[in-house]
Amino acid sequence: MSLAFVFPGQGSQSVGMMRALAERFPQVESTFGQAAEVLGYDLWALCRDGPAESLNATECTQPAMLSAAVATWRIWRDLGGPVPHAMAGHSLGEFSALVAAGSLDFRDAVALVRFRAQAMQSAVPPGAGAMAAILGLEDSDVEAACAEAAQGDVVEAVNFNAPSQVVIAGRAAAVARAIAAANTLGAKRAVMLPISVPAHSSLMLPAAASLGERLAAIKVAAPTAVAVYGVDVQVHSQPAAIRAALVKQLHTPVYWAATVRTMINAGANVIIECGPGKVLTSLNRRIDKNRDLKMLALEDPNSFEEALTAARAG
């Protein structure tokens, strides 16, 4: 195995994302147009023009990131890009990976992630929850900061993204206390994230139950590429197991660093980020600094040429 694709989740969105690709590739607006038919509003206009407050609302962010990743994937394939041997998605990105792997129909996925977002927001009202990135501490120190800050409320380490990079989530006040505790322990930086719900925390259990009911009615096929799931760092190929993993990842931590290491240990030497920005590419480079590994992001027309060359050479 040599080529792996990774798909970003919430937090990678920005107003104007995909604009450079849209100027050259019609797949962008056509993909967003299909999503708009499902959603009932102009998703591309929101991504192109904002406002940021609306794009950062979970109910809009999730369909937007899914559509951006799928549009990028379609460009890749139309340019002759090979199908990767393995795929993984960071949280929401798992839905993008499943569309790319043929497990989920795109329109079904758009409706599904909108439902997922609504269920998440219903579980914790806007402003009541928060997420923050803690940089420069060991995983155990972040978990200790959360334990100290909880004080009977919920704040948990939920994304183990890279060495010394952990995301926490929970009630907003508890997250603020955990940031203060992390700073006391010597964190280099602690920043709130533009995400309106505490994803992957135990506060999402009601949303996970709702998602499970909805997934039961959605057609899920076996994927065409190996998919590694960050919730348990396992490969799942059967529809029932895929559904279970998607439900579990909503209320339990994402082990991204371990997911990437699993793909590398299985032979991946070219890892391409398929979606706007390069958040995952930056994380992946910190996870494994082996210079023989190529880690690239499909963020503009020029980056496609570099990635295509690397994929074919790999």
Rounded mean pLDDT is 94
Number of DSSP E strands: 10
Strand numbers in spatial order across the main sheet: 8-7-2-1-9-10
Straight-line N-to-C gap:
9 Å
Specify the helix fraction band. 40-55%
What composes the largest sheet? 6 strands, mixed
Q: What string gives the helices and strands in order?
A: EHHHHHEHHEHEEHEHEEHHEHEH
Whole-number radius of gyration? 18 Å
Sheet/helix structural class: alpha/beta
Short description:
Helices cover 49% and strands 16% of the residues. By secondary structure, it is of the alpha/beta class.
Layout of strands and helices, then pairs:
Elements: E1 3-7, H1 19-22, H2 27-39, H3 43-49, H4 52-55, H5 58-78, E2 86-89, H6 93-100, H7 106-123, E3 129-135, H8 139-150, E4 155-162, E5 165-171, H9 172-184, E6 189-192, H10 205-215, E7 226-229, E8 234-235, H11 239-248, H12 256-265, E9 270-273, H13 279-287, E10 294-297, H14 301-313
Parallel strand pairs: 1-2, 1-9, 2-7, 9-10
Antiparallel strand pairs: 3-5, 3-6, 4-5, 7-8
Helix pairs in contact: 2-5, 2-7, 5-6, 5-7, 7-10, 8-9, 10-11
Could you explain how this protein is built, in words?
This protein has 314 residues and is α/β, with parallel strands linked by helices. Helices cover 49% and strands 16% of the residues. The chain contains 14 helices and ten strands. It has helices at 19-22, 27-39, 43-49, 52-55, 58-78, 93-100, 106-123, 139-150, 172-184, 205-215, 239-248, 256-265, 279-287, 301-313; strands spanning 3-7, 86-89, 129-135, 155-162, 165-171, 189-192, 226-229, 234-235, 270-273, 294-297. The mean pLDDT is 94.
